[in-house]
């Protein structure tokens, strides 16, 4: 399956604005993020904890809804799906 991951701000600088990731059938958002993170070596820790989980500060949006990082392993993707990753926002 082909999944599109869109990244903003600091994540875009490291992972690219839009990435196509090939994932197996029944892959989850967590699986796709792990594959994306695996492309960049040491910068993967921007998205993933040492245990391979999505960091709590990462905002994931899938089909117009925010997905908590802890839920990412339970959301199964379909071919052609797109989701977005946002880093923490600061400033004002």
Considering the chains and any ligands shown, give keywords for the structure.
single chain, 92 residues, alpha+beta, five-stranded mixed beta sheet, 2 helices, globular
Question: What does this protein look like?
Answer:
The chain has helices spanning 9-15, 29-37; strands at residues 2-7, 18-22, 59-62, 65-67, 82-86. It is globular and about 30 Å long. The chain contains two helices and five strands, in the order βαβαβββ. A hairpin with a 2-residue loop joins strand 3 (59-62) and strand 4 (65-67). The chain has one domain (2-86): Ubiquitin-like (UB roll) (Roll). The N and C termini lie far apart (40 Å). With 92 residues, it is an alpha+beta fold. It has a five-stranded mixed sheet with strand order 2-1-5-3-4.
């Amino acid at each position: 399956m082909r999944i599109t991951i869109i990244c903003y701000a600091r994540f875009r600088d490291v992972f690219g604005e839009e990435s196509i990731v090939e994932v197996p059938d029944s892959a989850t958002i967590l699986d796709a993020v792990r594959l994306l993170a695996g492309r960049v070596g040491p910068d993967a820790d921007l998205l993933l904890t040492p245990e391979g989980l999505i960091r709590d500060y990462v905002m994931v949006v899938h089909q117009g809804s925010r997905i908590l990082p802890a839920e990412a392993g339970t959301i199964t993707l379909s071919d052609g799906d797109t989701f977005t990753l946002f880093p923490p926002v600061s400033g004002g």
